Automatic annotation (TrEMBL):
Lineage: Bacteria, Bacillati, Actinomycetota, Actinomycetes, Pseudonocardiales
Name this protein carries in UniProt: DUF3159 domain-containing protein
Keywords assigned: Membrane, Transmembrane, Transmembrane helix
Region (Disordered): 1-35
Transmembrane segments: 41-61, 67-87, 94-112, 118-139, 201-222
Pfam families linked: DUF3159 (PF11361)
Amino acid sequence: MLSFGREPGDDHAGEPAEAPEAPEAPEEAPEPRAPTLLDQMGGVSGIVASGVPVVVFVVAQAVAGNLVASIVAAVVSAVAVAVWRLVRGEAVQPALSGLLGVAVCAFVAWRTGEAKGFFLLGIWTSLVYGGVFLLSVLVRRPLVGVLWHLVNGEGQTWRRDPRVLRAFDLASLAWVVVFGARFVVQRWLYDSVYADTWLGWVRLAMGVPLALLAAAVTVWAIRRSRAASEAPASTGRRRSTRSSRA
């Protein structure tokens, strides 16, 4: 017997079949961020930790007044910092570099037989660093800009922009002032009768505070460089918009 009714399941007969949904494209993994200069130094914690042995030496010398005890305390603190960063899974290289520096300073102090010998390497290192930064400005390759763009893999085309070049000149000169001031003041103290009393404390006072001032100028120069690199792209977009409207 013929049946003119609809069979079960024929409610959607004659309607176009829905196309299967296209699978969503997998999200692209973000490109790994290039390590910055601050990352290479172990971050803020790495910079702070590197100054711990110097603080320990100055305090121990002020309290105990014994060169051997102060050297041992500084070396032990440097080892403790390295172990602490290793346990926390942080970069150990900055701590190991700091440990090596403390060991050299301790050796110099032991050889000279005077507590002020602990700071002799840092004094002459400041002179070398200041000279290198100054020379980089004179040859029109300011070291702050060279290092920043080298670490971030951005090339050296930034030197074609006079504004960016001038900003990194100022940042490099800020570090020249910091290192130059450290050398002049601490070298004078080293040869004065105030060395045993004030040299260590002046070293601390001219450490992080002055570095923060130079770092502020460096950050300003980096932001100026980024703004200059983004300016051509925005200018190109505005030009294309104007041409399409015309």
